[in-house]
Amino acid sequence: MATAVETLGKLERRITISFPLTDVRTEVEKRLKVQARTAKAPGFRPGKVPLKMVAAQYGYQIETEVLNDKVGRAFNDAANENNLRVAGYPKIEPKEAAAEGVLAFDATFEVYPEVVIGDLGGVAIETVKAEVSDAEIDKTIDILRKQRVHFHVKGEAGEHGDGGKDLSAQNGDKVTVDFVGSIDGVEFPGGKADGYAFVLGEGRMLPEFEAATVGLKVGEAKTFPLAFPEDYHGKDVAGKTASFTITLVKLEWAHLPEVDAEFAKSLGVADGDLAKMREDIKVNLEREVAGRVKARNKESVMDALVKVAELDVPKSLIAQDSERLAQMTRQDMAQRGMNIKDVPFPPELFAEKAERRVRLGLILSQLVGDNKLQATAEQVKAQVEDFAQSYEDPREVLKYYYSDRQRLGEVEALVLEENVVNYVLGLSKVTSKAVAFDELMGSNAQA
């Protein structure tokens, strides 16, 4: 039996559930007898253990199961009878002031809110667009060349030349140095190394260190002061000024591969056709640009929906999603090989992000239900096929998704979001802004 629903707040409700104690005892005895059929104990054959011994061993566990089953069933029945959409899980607490021979529990819970979405026709949304030009293709080719760089000793003739007449260290050169540093005349841990190699201009070393290295020739040395930043990772030297002496022991110049047929073949173009190589690069860049544009525009739509929709967000759902985000973060860090054994992951750190995720989930659910924006089987298939285009064997990608309902569900969620985005953009006041390729590629929009 359940009492009438009490309203405790905007979303919080309470129901008192009660049932006779005899019902619990009857069910416990019934389950104990079933347990006794297979119970084992020293000195007794299986199924011949006295019921009192079975009750002593399994009674508490069975009683707990019976109570959980009865309370859960009674709560679900009460929620259905009152047409309640329960958000999260109820908090069940024993009710002390119960009648004799009756067990009573208070079930406190939240319900899903009413979601009121404002006039989408009056919403202004700015979308972005970007194009892939020859300049972006050239820049990508330069990056690919640098990824395949080879270093050769300066001044030594080889199949690629000798690196020029200037035998001093310059930006782009790979230098190998011996160095020793001291503070107030005393060497410090980590301040000395022999045969240390780095490429000038990549920023691996502090600016003063690189500046002192530029211009040196093999065998030359230089002493210079170096001020460590206040936030330097080495706490013992952070904020202090050291005296360093460096000696250049090896100097190599960078040889970038020529953009020729062999270079094209190294990128997977079997016949070495440079025009085909550029076209492949363009297709890949356009696919990446399309993904970034879609993400940026989706974010703009989601921001607009958050502003135009009115609803109260259930705290229980925020708490659940905060826990989920904390667990996901822990798993991700562990997979990256980070030692997180003693690292705390308080869910409160994720509450703001969780609140937005839950809020958007409720808004999207309302829009989808009201406007029939569910993902169709054809849309899901098209999305999976689009994913498959960038892989060597598209059939394996199709099999990967369609063999796992959870994976397919993730694709359905993406399609559903895209349906919502297109629906909102179709109603709102949209302006489009062209963004530079570099700006777009430097962004990481996420809804």
Automatic annotation (TrEMBL):
Coiled coil regions, renumbered to chain: none
Ranges where the PPIase FKBP-type domain occurs: 172-257
Subcellular location(s) of the protein: Cytoplasm
Highest taxon of source: Bacteria
InterPro entries per the UniProt record, alphabetical: PPIase_dom_sf, PPIase_FKBP_dom, Trig_fac, Trigger_fac_C, Trigger_fac_C_sf, Trigger_fac_ribosome-bd_bac, Trigger_fac_ribosome-bd_sf, Trigger_fact/SurA_dom_sf
Enzyme class: isomerase
Keywords: Cell cycle, Cell division, Chaperone, Cytoplasm, Isomerase, Rotamase
Alphabetized SUPFAM superfamilies for the sequence: FKBP-like, Triger factor/SurA peptide-binding domain-like, Trigger factor ribosome-binding domain
MF terms (GO), sorted A to Z: peptidyl-prolyl cis-trans isomerase activity
Alphabetized Gene3D superfamilies for the sequence: 3.10.50.40, Trigger factor ribosome-binding domain, Trigger factor, C-terminal domain
Signal sequence extent: none
Catalytic reaction(s) noted: [protein]-peptidylproline (omega=180) = [protein]-peptidylproline (omega=0)
This protein's record includes keyword Repeat: no
UniProt keyword annotation of Ligase present: no
EC number, as in UniProt: 5.2.1.8
Record remark: domains: Consists of 3 domains; the N-terminus binds the ribosome, the middle domain has PPIase activity, while the C-terminus has intrinsic chaperone activity on its own.
Alphabetized NCBIfam families for the sequence: tig
Function comment: Involved in protein export. Acts as a chaperone by maintaining the newly synthesized protein in an open conformation. Functions as a peptidyl-prolyl cis-trans isomerase.
Family: Belongs to the FKBP-type PPIase family. Tig subfamily.
Name of the protein: Trigger factor
Gene name of the encoded protein: tig
